[in-house]
Amino acid sequence: MDSLIPFTTSGSLVDCVDRKMLVVLRDGRKLQGVLRSYDQFANLVLEDTVERIYHQDVFAEMWRGLFLIRGENVVLLGEIDLDQEDEVPLRQVEWSALEPYHKQDIAVKKHREEIKADVLFEEKGFCKEGGEGDGY
After folding, report:
1. Where do the domains of the chain lie?
2. By Cβ atoms counted within 10 A, which residue in 6, 46, 76, 100 is the most buried?
3. Which residues are paired to 24 by β-bridges?
């Protein structure tokens, strides 16, 4: 009966080792690489890692190599379907051409989040992230 209970711990990652994975981090970065190892805290080791940035219908990649990721920074981890990977309707451009647009997108998002945090704080009594009462 216990074999029917699904893994809800880092042990569920055992089938993902040696597969190409997409990892989205808390700071918004998107990494693609081959998962080589993990531990009980879901710390990950990615090999042949590239960081991708996006803007509208284009993307750019920057080689990052071997990457160690602390488990608490992982928002999403998913396997990349190698059969469908090349069918993405996005055009690849140079990192240097796309980086200014990406930085602008990040700045706009950060400004929006600050406004939202101010409204939630002033009107609803929520604490601001990183502020008093935000400890865990």
Report:
1. 2-92
2. 46
3. 30, 76
Per-residue pLDDT of the chain (136 residues; tens, 9 = 90+): 455 556 566 677 888 899 999 999 999 999 999 999 999 888 999 999 999 999 999 999 999 999 999 999 999 999 999 888 888 889 999 999 999 999 999 999 999 999 999 999 888 888 877 665 555 5
What span, in angstroms and rounded, lies between the C-alpha atoms of 9 and 107?
35
Q: Strand pairing partners for 33?
A: 21
Q: Residues 128, 134: contact at Cβ < 8 Å?
A: yes
Residues present in the chain in total:
136
Q: Which helix (H) or strand (E) holds 45?
A: strand 44-55
